[in-house]
Amino acid sequence: MTDEALNDLTEFHWMMDMLQTVDVGLVVLNREFEVNLWNGFMESHSGLLPSQVRGKSLFSLFSEVNEVWFRNKARPVFELKNRAFIIWEQRPYLLKFPNYRPITGTEDFMYQNITLSPLISTTGKVDNICMMIYDVTDVAVGKKMLESTQVILSELNEKAAETPSGV
């Protein structure tokens, strides 16, 4: 094996290790929405091994996913080669994973931001898309706490304005 081939193989090994250990869910779905790739994040949070999900429909694995809605969301990714986004403010989660910090966390499930990206083949077609799932639970909890605090402060300010001075 040449030094260049060995370097390429080493780099490929590193990239595969990064895909498995990155703190982002990575799922590759084909046009039938069957799972082709399932990384370590997904295994850890779903409790499902890659061998249990490979070749199976996302909709059969996760009944909480609205199939019609998700297919419509993914259509421009396949057809127009554009990315699509799902943010937690619009839909708190796509896949209902439990919050993995039950003692310090205040939420029962993981809030998620999701990016759907086209995977363009060597022929220029998009036969697969990559779904990247980001855990944004801390951000969501912080924003919800801030909004709750703002409501309380607003109510206190209203009460203070209604109270006659000198009382």
UniProtKB/TrEMBL annotation:
Annotated InterPro entries: PAS-like_dom_sf, PAS_fold
PAS fold domain residues: 18-64
The protein's name: PAS fold domain-containing protein
Organism: Lacimicrobium alkaliphilum
